TrEMBL record:
Protein name per its UniProtKB record: FAD-binding oxidoreductase
One GO term (biological process): respiratory electron transport chain
Any one Pfam family match given in the protein's UniProt record, by short name: FAD_binding_4
Known cofactor(s): FAD
Organism: Gammaproteobacteria bacterium LSUCC0057
Length: 462
């Protein structure tokens, strides 16, 4: 329970109607897309300005109230879960365009702006925000930055980190910092902006962000290939990236395709089936389309691929993309146990063979679904919960093998989290991606920005 004087002070600050405590609100704002933990926040605060965010954090320090920052709550690692009576500070109302500069190709927005809204704003001004993923219609910019979101365009455009020119943040101590001020070049020592990118709300609340924009890609085509085995995907990737400047290279398994077509009613890309599928996107200018088709013929002759289709219209391209983009939303209905891992691209064939053998040994009756951003070494391993198995039993069984998968990741010098963060879900396995010395330094950095430990307690590490 929150202290009565604290509640009164918050209501006076933001208005009684902006402090929510109804059961439906606690449920809505208390969890992300994970299904393991039950939401149990004490209340939800909806500040309307950076100044209100700062005052809320100062009050939380004064009354020793734990705070969970909240964006679009589309995360998959429990980073936005409030399960121990915390105050959730949701930044939904900080969603406006604050400044746009076409010369600098930059825009400053509130952290609560939905990703798709930023993409649409850029498009309206003849520009492009390339960080894109299936949850773009509900995720928020602040949350994207706090988790350094990646998505489907990383092979060409990189992660969220590559597009953040500046941040306005409120630290766990209640200090207001303006970091980098939108500069492209600023060689003045430690760049604290990058500490907050990927910090999962443990150092401060991101309130505003200055985002770099790009020229939009022109005349995009989508090519989907049926690939005969996983090592062949890597050969196809090597051939295409050597000859073309791709904007995306994704993969998914036949199991993933079956689930998506059953759930959405989308048509398969072609009649024949393949163990795996590769989705490539590229600009058609110059001789790019001819090059893509010539490479397809080479891959057919080498028996790397068995079939393929290239989009002939914008609508067909969109539908082909849906076969990949709708996987996460489709699998969510099956309460999957997810592993979001990465290794060097060159090591992926050997790695995936070892993971398959491990999962087959531990879960001979479970359905395993693979997909991911193959062009940047990011694999999504999903184990679907059997309908007859209780969630608690399912999680317990899957958790036992996650440690072994993480040990395998460590042996391959990979990461236990490629893009979804650590949160609660992967906290036990952080040691497989970070040394004890690194974790000790991370703890010290966290104490520097949040001396009383009120921000997102229990996330990343205890």
């Amino acid at each position: 329970m929150l202290p009565a004087p604290f509640i009164a002070a918050v209501q006076q600050l933001i208005g009684a109607k902006r402090l929510l405590a109804e059961a439906a609100d606690l449920q809505r704002y208390g969890v992300d897309r994970t299904t393991i933990w039950q939401p149990a926040p004490s209340a939800i605060a909806l500040p309307g300005s950076v100044e209100e965010v700062q005052q809320l954090v100062l009050l939380a320090n004064q009354y020793d109230v734990a705070v969970v920052p909240s964006g679009g709550r589309t995360g998959l690692s429990g980073g936005a879960v409030a399960k121990n009576g915390e105050l959730v500070i949701a930044l939904d109302r900080l969603n406006e365009v604050i400044e746009f500069n076409p010369i600098d190709r930059s825009v400053t927005v509130g952290a609560g702006m939905v990703t798709e809204a930023l993409q649409n704003f850029a498009e309206q001004h003849g520009l492009y925000y390339p960080v894109d993923f299936a949850s773009a219609g509900s995720s928020q910019i602040g949350g994207n930055i706090a988790t350094n979101a990646g998505g489907i365009k990383v092979i060409r455009y990189g992660m969220t980190r590559d597009w953040v020119l500046g941040l306005k943040v409120v630290t766990g101590a209640g200090e207001l910092l303006e970091l980098n001020r939108g500069l492209l070049k600023n060689n003045t020592g430690y760049d604290l902006r990058h500490l907050f990118i990927g910090s999962e709300g443990t150092l401060g609340l991101i309130c505003e962000a200055t985002i770099k924009l790009a020229r939009p890609p022109v005349d995009l085509a989508v090519l989907v290939l049926g690939v005969n085995d996983f090592p062949s995907i890597m050969t196809v990737l090597e051939k295409y990236t050597a000859a073309m400047d791709l904007t995306a290279f994704e993969f998914f398994s036949e199991a993933a395709l079956c689930r998506v077509t059953e759930h959405t009613g989308l048509a398969r890309p072609f009649e024949s089936q393949a163990p795996f599928y590769a989705l490539l996107e590229f600009e058609q200018g110059g001789d790019q389309l001819d090059t893509a088709m010539a490479l397809f013929e080479q891959c057919l002759e080498a028996e790397l691929v068995s079939d393929g289709v290239v989009s002939q219209s914008l609508s067909q391209a969109a539908n082909l993309w849906k076969l990949r983009e709708d996987i996460s939303e489709t699998l969510w209905h099956y309460k999957p146990y997810k592993n979001d891992i990465s290794v060097k691209v060159s090591k992926m064939p050997d790695f995936i063979l070892e993971v398959d053998a491990l999962v087959a040994e531990r879960y001979p009756s479970f359905e395993v679904v693979w997909y991911g951003h193959i062009g940047d070494g990011n694999l999504h391993l999903n184990i679907l919960k059997p309908a007859e198995l209780a969630l608690e039993q399912f999680v317990a069984q899957c958790s036992s093998v996650s440690s072994e998968v993480s040990e395998l990741v460590e042996r391959y010098q990979g990461s236990i989290s490629a893009e979804h963060g650590v949160g609660l879900l992967k906290k036990p396995y952080l040691k497989h991606s970070k040394s004890s010395e690194e974790i000790a330094l991370m703890r010290a950095i966290r104490r520097s920005f949040d001396p009383k430990g009120i921000l997102n307690p229990g996330k990343l590490f205890d």
